[in-house]
């Protein structure tokens, strides 16, 4: 195959693939634009105890969204948790996903849904900001900056 034929073959196969990849990236970005996070706070105690992430997640899209995880460079692990009372005792467990219906909001708050941020990889103190990336079931990600607060500030 000569050079001209090789270039034509690349144009026929590679350019449509790149166009499709760009379109998919634009759709993911548009979907993230329909997801809003407000009042993002990270409650933290001194030492290497886990922190708890609280925020309000609003779905302005026309489809149900599903938060499936999160990550932060400041922590080795971030999990989505829920605390609930059962027989007078508080229990906490990890969730695989939290769904938010179109036009609805869900509050991540003490004694309810929250992010559990574990094993710090860097020093984190009250007054700092911590970057967290929320991950959704459709592979959309949303970067959020959390203000680090004392548990007494909640």
From TrEMBL:
Pfam family, one: PCuAC
InterPro entries referenced in this protein's UniProt entry, alphabetically: LpqE-like, Lxx211020-like, PCuAC_sf
Keyword 4Fe-4S listed: no
Domain of life: Bacteria
Signal peptide (residue range): 1-32
Keywords from the named record: Signal
PANTHER family noted in UniProt: BLR7088 PROTEIN, COPPER CHAPERONE PCU(A)C
Stated name of the protein: Copper chaperone PCu(A)C
Natural source organism: Halomonas dongshanensis
Origin organism lineage: Bacteria, Pseudomonadati, Pseudomonadota, Gammaproteobacteria, Oceanospirillales
């Amino acid at each position: 195959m000569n050079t001209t034929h090789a270039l034509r073959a690349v144009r026929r196969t590679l350019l449509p693939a790149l166009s499709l990849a760009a379109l998919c990236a634009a759709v993911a970005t548009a979907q993230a634009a329909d997801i809003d996070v407000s009042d993002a706070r990270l409650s933290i105690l001194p030492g290497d105890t886990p922190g708890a992430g609280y925020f309000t997640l609003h779905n302005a899209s026309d489809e149900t969204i599903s938060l499936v995880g999160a990550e932060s460079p400041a922590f080795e692990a971030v999990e989505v948790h829920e605390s609930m009372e059962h027989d007078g005792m508080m229990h906490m467990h990890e969730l695989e996903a939290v769904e938010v219906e179109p036009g609805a909001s869900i509050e991540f708050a003490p004694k309810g849904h929250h992010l559990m941020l574990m094993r710090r990889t860097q020093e984190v103190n009250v007054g700092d900001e911590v970057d967290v990336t929320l991950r959704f079931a459709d592979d959309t990600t949303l970067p959020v900056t959390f203000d680090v607060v004392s548990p007494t500030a909640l």
